Amino acid sequence: MADIPGLVRSIIETLADDPDAIEISEKSRGKVHVVQLKVSQADMGRIIGREGRVANAVRAVLDAAPGDERWKLEIVD
């Protein structure tokens, strides 16, 4: 199984001004895995992006993950 939470962390760390505030957790629901992402309030707009473009790009990467499992990104404020 690929390290999808680690991949998400790598992507988000490059975008965030405060990479130490990044918290990532994983929850499994059958074949669906949810990566929960929490960043500082100052980085929230940058991580979501204009009209959600950055968040949707990260979700597209998760959709391309190999294997039978499905991955979803949930941004927690």
Which key features would you list for this structure?
single chain; 77 residues; alpha+beta; GMP Synthetase, Chain A, domain 3; 3 helices; 3 strands; 40% helix; globular
Structural commentary:
With 77 residues, the chain is of the alpha+beta class. The protein has a single domain, classed as GMP Synthetase, Chain A, domain 3, CATH 3.30.300.20. Helix content is 40%, strand content 27%. The protein contains 3 helices and 3 strands; from the N terminus they run αββααβ. Strands 1-2-3 form a 3-stranded mixed sheet. Strand 1 and strand 2 (32-38) form a beta hairpin. The radius of gyration is 12 Å and the shape is globular. The mean pLDDT is 93.
Number of helices: 3
Order of helices and strands: HEEHHE
* Residue share in β-strands: 25-35%
Share in helix: 40-55%
The residue ranges in which pLDDT falls below 50 over 5 or more consecutive positions are: none
Indicate the mean pLDDT. Answer: 93
Largest sheet, order of strands side by side?
Answer: 1-2-3
Q: How many individual β-strands?
A: 3
Q: Which CATH architecture is right?
A: 2-Layer Sandwich
Q: Nearest-angstrom radius of gyration?
A: 12 Å
